[in-house]
Amino acid sequence: MSRYWSPVVGTLSPYVPGEQPKLTNLVKLNTNENPYGPSPRALQAMRDACDDSMRLYPDPASDRLRQAAAASAGVSPDQVFVGNGSDEVLAHVFQAFFQQPAPLRFPDISYSFYPVYCGLYGVVHEPVPLTDDFRIDPDDYLPDAGGRGPAGGIIFPNPNAPTGRALELDEVERIVAANPQCVVVVDEAYVDFGAQSAAPLVGRHENLLVVQTLSKSRSLAGLRVGFAIGHEALIDGLQRVKNSFNSYPIDRVAEAGAAAALDDVGHFERTRKAVMETRARMTAGLQDLGFEVLPSAANFVFARHPGHDAAGLAAGLRERSIIVRHFRHPRIDQFLRITVGTEPQCTTLLEALRALVQG
Ligand SMILES: *Cc1c(COP(=O)(O)O)cnc(C)c1O
Questions:
Q1: One matching Pfam family, short form (predicted)?
Q2: Is 215 touching ligand 1 by the criterion CB < 6 Å?
Q3: Domains in the chain, start-ordered, CATH in brackets?
Q4: 197 and 173 in contact (C-beta within 8 Å)?
Q5: CA of 51 to the centre of ligand 1 (A)
Q6: Is the pTM of this model over 0.70?
Q7: pLDDT, tens only, 66-92
Q8: pLDDT in tens, 9-24
């Protein structure tokens, strides 16, 4: 606390990112990074961008990147907004659309940045519990569900995090169509690992906004690029907020690298397929050891063991230099969220868990 702070600062509960340990030789399965490197073409484009032109400001509209994102999502560049990581895109979304008298609704178990932005931007919000088997039930998001009255906004990840469970596209559309009074945001950080994108629906629903990132399936978490896809009027709202905050969120190197990564479809297809194959082996291996594993459409799995405490397992893995994520939150404190790594990392993980579980 300091008497110099603006009043809101003392009330904030900031997001706590998964740790980024300085040690090398760790099997790092705690923050859902991609185990495969980015597209070599993206790396080359970034090297090429490092020349005398760095003395100039970048394109404030990031046209080249918006075109690449539009092409990859099958929409027009006017339907794309880009930002410095999808976290920044989401921040602008909360300010542009969710400061409403009616509450923002999102799942009780979901991306923990959402309540943080509510605190920062003064957004009233209301958790919607997942079902007992950790699914989003679209019926719970209908405006008259539970006699609560219409929402002022809705946001959920698809697939959800940290559960990994995905909704079908028709279920997503049902939520969007039932709530024309507010913006419905589908956070598709993990969509490329096995769910269907709602991007093709933006032409039909002016209240739908789809948010994606290059951090996970494009293996560029270090670059900080994300984007939103939606109706031109929503994109215009986001531009107004962005241009009142930072005119140049995407630097020259990031724009070149991100556009090249989006263009490299071959690398993208190969690496996401490898992640999905390892996920299947990891799931089967965990089940063999007695774990319950939620069906995952993401690059991580969410698993619990009926006979072993999750915090104890996480500590045991850490002693063996394997880091996974454990959340001390009600309902999920017996689960581990484990990022899908390479095949050798998967083998190391399963061997370590075998030793811990079978003592
Ligand atoms: C990783 C993640 C993000 C943020 O991604 P960045 O683009 O790296 O900021 C957003 N939403 C969810 C659900 C995520 O897991």
A1: Aminotran_1_2
A2: yes
A3: 18-37+266-358 (3.90.1150.10), 40-263 (3.40.640.10)
A4: no
A5: 30
A6: yes
A7: 999 999 999 999 999 999 999 999 999
A8: 999 999 988 888 877 7
